[in-house]
Each structure stands twice: as structure tokens, then as C-alpha cells.
Design a protein that fits this description.
The structure is a homodimer. In chain A, strand 5 (about 165-170), helix 8 (about 180-195) and strand 6 form a beta-alpha-beta unit. By secondary structure, the first copy, chain A, is α/β, with parallel strands linked by helices. The longest helix of chain A is centred in the last third of the chain and has 24 residues, at about 285-310. The termini of chain A are far apart. Chain A has 14 helices and twelve strands. The interface between A and B is large, with 83 and 83 residues.
Chain lengths: ~400, ~400
Amino acid sequence: MPTVSDRGKIMPDSPIRKLGPLAEKAKAKGIKVYHLNIGQPDLPTPPEALAAIKNIDRTILEYTPSEGILSFRKKLVKYYQKFDIDVSVEDIIITSGGSEAVTFAFMSCLDPGDEIIVPEPAYANYEAFAIVAGAEIKSIAAKIEEGFSLPPVEEFEKLITPKTKGIMICNPNNPTGYLYTREEMNKIRDLVKKYDLYLFSDEVYREFCYTGAPYISAFHLEGIEQNVVLVDSVSKRYSECGLRIGALITKNEAVKKNVMKFCQARLSPPLIGQIAAEASLDADPDYMLNNYNEYVNRRKFLIDGLNRIDGVYSPIPMGAFYTVARLPVDNSDKFCAWLLSDFEYEGQTVMMAPASGFYTAANQGIDEVRIAYVLNKKDLAVCLKILEEALKVYPGSKVRQKAFSKENN
Amino acid sequence: MPTVSDRGKIMPDSPIRKLGPLAEKAKAKGIKVYHLNIGQPDLPTPPEALAAIKNIDRTILEYTPSEGILSFRKKLVKYYQKFDIDVSVEDIIITSGGSEAVTFAFMSCLDPGDEIIVPEPAYANYEAFAIVAGAEIKSIAAKIEEGFSLPPVEEFEKLITPKTKGIMICNPNNPTGYLYTREEMNKIRDLVKKYDLYLFSDEVYREFCYTGAPYISAFHLEGIEQNVVLVDSVSKRYSECGLRIGALITKNEAVKKNVMKFCQARLSPPLIGQIAAEASLDADPDYMLNNYNEYVNRRKFLIDGLNRIDGVYSPIPMGAFYTVARLPVDNSDKFCAWLLSDFEYEGQTVMMAPASGFYTAANQGIDEVRIAYVLNKKDLAVCLKILEEALKVYPGSKVRQKAFSKENN
């Protein structure tokens, strides 16, 4: 049998999906599993998108242009203007999800051996896409005690070598919910300018900023317009992850030229997805506001609830719909597996994403989990109760050990 | 400005799409351009697929499993049984088009520096996907005089080195329309077995075999079951290229494991596309037969017509909906560009794909073009007339030169 690729071997298993088989087993035993582990919102897709799909009057479902449907790209120009992002239709290339946008960004800008710096915890698949491009992620740990704010510039500079080609950020952040301040974004800008780096900026959660603090796009930063490669997706903001529609946006002609070659090789992004995504841009403002308010409420409810549980700490996320919380456990990988395989509370349990998967560095985030608030408040209340009860009995729980040692004193 | 990747720089421009701007200019001048250059069928998508899209009753368009929707994969098992391809649901992984299937196959099996052998002319994007994986294509020219049949085994063996990891075939073939015989497939099998290679087999045109000769799948070959990675797509057979639904099929567990990592990184193939593709499997047999008969008629009409034009030669393609024809011209790249920029016949011209783009080797196919018979017979008749008239006046035409020299004698 021929050997498989080393590239495939070093590709990480999905931190979110590797617990899947345990969840399936729990469900097979009749246990209800609450999914706090995935970024799949439970909120409805805009009716405008569903109507556009139902009203398709084509008889042939043809390829679209490799760069995406023109009318959709034109409408995106106006969408970005609402956020003071000034891009032209030529700057916008439609991709099969944000995933493909990151992949094509890395493929177009990075060669094997090149390095990018990523503050962690970070979206796990950046590492996967870097491996696809043969590039290496150099990570800097953001600290939970500091609410996962930007690590000091000096930490970045320590990692910069002639191989460093870029910095990758996610803002608002998945998994932490952190929103970079103007000051932090300016620091990133100065680094990018000083070392002439790419700034890969994943801004798919821009609609979800909760604190009144401004959303600063990479395109708001002056003097690095040619360095920015922005990644976007309609998946999260319109709850239509299944469409697989994203975008790569850059003003850099050389990057565009490379990206277009990868786009042409894969022929076309999905036709129906583009039609539905274009219609989503006309979503009723009330739809957006309702979703927004729903997340605001869930966020407050979840974070308050988490911080009330003995030994649990969650910073207050400012955006997106995730938080990374610290739990009083020996090892969150073990704990999350145990929740699925050895625990139930009134026939129910929760599935969370161990944070270790969001760090490329070893031994980071071992007592942290990512929790997505993609369930309604009633369900979140149940989840909080399950978590509280689980921590009382989990063998590796520090709370349990404390209680146990008190009892024996 | 940071530099872009070398990988991107060596990526070939799409041979089909690079003439696009010239076609746009011709259209802007009011010239009607007949597109014989693309593999986009003009035949309707099955009504079952369109109905499935219209009848979607979901309120949230969610991610699907990374490997694709289970009911779709189960139905594909039965579909393949009709072709005596015996695979299980676990062997089938749904991809975003055949393009992603080839990409993931190469990424999962090949490391930078690895080599694969490809008989040429070949689908141009294999080269692009090989570059993505850092692998190298070693090509063997199939000859138009031999109808593009399999080159001799000795030619393959000359290219085999310790770096050789596989052979890639397309059967029935894009761009030539050639269908490998049982004897040829057995030769490939013996090579694969002798050198323990992967056999990457792109079989997306299996529904379109016209001569009564059998379609031999790579999975029909005994003793190399673990070596086969089959690439499939619903795009061509159901005229639904825009759905972006393909499949990678293998019985090799190690390959599957690697492929699944790439699948999980990109989260999900398109949801709506899968729903429509699944419905397409129930397409009325009359629909399939009508399309088939249409291609049979067009094929005869086109090939007869081509071979009647002075100096033109086309082998008789046995499958798919393309032919590679030899034209009496100095250079088909120049000729195809000239057709768009300097020629018109009664306000009309044709766009064809120069065959040079289907060879990785230099100076191959310089008087060949790929013609897709994705237009109806009436339009094909016009195209043949345009081509005939063009060859009379094209400055680099050998027919024109012959006529000219006769006149002057």
C-alpha cells in the first residue's frame, strides 16, 4: 500500500469534532446532549434567503464566475460601506466559506517554511490551513486573566524573523469573544508596517459587538492598505453556515492575481449559496436586531451563570458568540470526554470544546473550554446546572477535591 | 509590500478562462460568441433537483457533516452498484465539486517533491492541484494519430522513480473523449501493482460512453482496491455544475483518515447542493436518456463536420462531451485569440480552448484545440461554418497559405 502524505499526518484532528463519537454514544444511551461545542447558531436564516432559494427560476444550475456573481459582489461593496470599509467590487472575491478564503490567502501569500504569528487561543483551523500551505504558525498566548487582550508588542517582535510573512487575527475573536481596541489595532498596524507583513484579518463576527466599543476593521488602519487580506463569511451573521459562502477581500493586486488562480482552478463558488447570501444582505433590520439582542441576553445570562459556579471563571466577551472559560478541573480534554462518557444529570449532559485545540503550543489552555452560546436561555440554564453538578462529582475536579478535603478535616 | 507566494506564481492561468477578456471585448463590439471552450452543458438540470431546492422546508441552513449528508452517501452506494462499483457508505466522502476531491486526494497522498504520472492532454487543473500539494506532474503525451489511446507502458516505466507516488487518469477523458479499453485499464492496474502506486481516477463522465465499449472503472480492477482514489462529481452528468458537489471514494483507511482531516478543516460541503444532488439521483431515466441521445447526435454531427473542413482532423471521441481536434494553423493559442479579436463571420465567432493548456510539457498541442459540444446542433452547424471561414483567412492558416500559393503558381 502506498504511504499517505506527512502533511495529512500532521494535520490536527478537529478539536470540536473529535469528541463526536463519544457524543453519539451518549445519545445512543438515551442521554440528551446540549451542544455548546459548535459555532452553529440555532437562530433562523433570514426569510429573504429562504425565499430566494425557493424562487430560483433557472433551468440550468451553471457555474458562476470564479470570483463570484457580480451583483452579489456589488451589493457587498455597499454592505462594507456601512462599516466604513471602503472597497471596490474588484477587491472582493467570493469563496466557498471563510475556510476557503483563509486557505487561498495562505496559499497565495505564504510558501513552505514561511511563518505567521497568531495570538492564541485562536480558531483551530488556521493551523490546518497553514499546514496546507506548508507554513508555520508561531503563537503568542493571550491570557485569560487579561481577558485575552492583545499580548504585548514585544512578544510579537521576539518572534519576528526573516521568515515571518504575516500576522493573523480574528476580530471579534473566535474562541474568546475579545474585541480589539483602537489602540491595540494601531499597535498591530505599526508592527505590520515596520516589518512589512501581511495582516490576515478574520472579521466574520463584526455584526456581533456588544459593549459599545467600536469594531475596528483591518481596513480602517491607515498606511497598510496593501498588506491587508480580510476574510469574511455570511455563515454566522445570517445563520446560514451550510451555504458555504465567504469572501476574501484585498486591495493588493499581486495577491488578487494569485488568489484568482486558485479560484479558477476550483472553477466556481456555490451558485445557490451565492443567490441566498445576496438575498441575505437585504435581511430586515429587525431580523438582525432580534438576533443581536438574543445574543446580548444569552451572553449576560451565560457569563453571569458561569461566574457564579464555584471555581469557574469567564472573562466578559465583547463580541462573537463564544467565551473561553476556566474550569476547576485537572484537564479539560479529559473533563469534556468524561461529561459525555461517564456523566449525566437527569438524563442530560453538555458537550463543550476543550481549549487545548485552540492553542498550537503544548500545555496551554488545559483548564479552559470554549463555550458557544448558540442555545436559548432556557437551555443555557440547564447547561449551567449540568456543569455545576458535574464539577461536584468529576474525579479531576478541584472543587470536589476541596469539598472532599474539608469534609475530612 | 510583502511578496506573494512562489506557489501562486507558478500556478498556471486557466487555459479556458484566459481568453475571457478577449471574448468580453468581442461581445462589447456586438459580436455573438459561441462558447465551445467550456465544460458547462446547456442541457437542463433534472426537474427533481430543482424541485428539491424549491421544497426545502428548513428554517436554518446548517452545516452538514464534514463527510456529507448520510442519506445522500447511502444513495450513492446504490448508484455506483449500477456500474458494478462496490463501495460502502464509509468509502464515500462528499466534496465541494470534483475539484476539491482531486485537491484532497493529492493533499492526503502526496508530499512536496512527490511525482505523479499523467497521460496528456489532461484536464488542466490537475496541474494546479498538484502545485497546491507541492507535487510534480510527469507527463506522457498521448498522440492524436492514435486517437489519444494509452501511451505504451514502457513510457510510464521510464518516468517511474522513487518519488513516483501515483498515476492520474480521467476516464472517459476530458479533454480528448477517449475511453480506456479493458486491456489498457489492465496495463494501468499492473503498473499500479508492480510499483505500489496510487491510481487517482477521475470518472465524472461515466454516464457518457457512446460506442458500446464498456466503461471500466478503476474499482473494477482486481488487486489494487487499496490503491484507488476515485474522483466523482454530479456537475456534468446532471448539468448542475453550480452546485459544487463531488465525491472522493476510496477503500484505503489511511487515505480516508487524512482526507477527513482536510474535510473537517473546511467544515462542510454545501448543504443545498447536497440536497439537490441527492434528488438528482432520482432523475427520470428518460431525462438521462434524452441527454445521452442529444450528446450522441451532437458528437456525430460535430466530428463529421470537423473532418469535412479542409485540413482539420478530429479523432472520434468515445465518451464525455469534448474532442481534441488538429487544426491547420501555426499556433492554436494565437488562432483562438485571433478568432475573438480580429475575426467575425456575419457578426459571429467561436471561442475554443487552445490545447496547449492541457499539456504541462512545452510545445505540445500547438495546433490542437479542445471543442466542447455543449451547444445544440443548430449552433454547432454555425460554429463549423465560422471555423471553416476563419481558416480561409487566418494569417497563420496552412489552408490559406496553400490556397494562396496555388493562386500564385
